[in-house]
Amino acid sequence: MKMVNMHAAKTHLSRIVDEAAAGEDIVLAKGGRPVVRLVPYAAPSEPRVPGALRGRVTIHRNFDARLPPGVAAAFGAER
What we know:
The protein has a 3-stranded mixed beta sheet with strand order 1-2-3. The chain contains 3 helices and 3 strands. Helix content is 27%, strand content 19%. It has 79 residues and is of the alpha+beta class. It has a domain at 2-38: YefM-like domain (YefM-like fold, 3-Layer(aba) Sandwich), CATH 3.40.1620.
């Protein structure tokens, strides 16, 4: 993993992008702290088709019902 500070990234953006596109793991840092990670763009392999899972997924009628108090509390929900 290569860490690059923002100033150097602005100065050498083209080179850094080329390195990331070639597969190098590059992290941009601000003030010495990691902020973002550059990864190569990967186009979706095939277009999404609306309704492709119709009939294969079931959403129960009580899907949006309130959770039992113990379960809601476990997730930090307020009453």
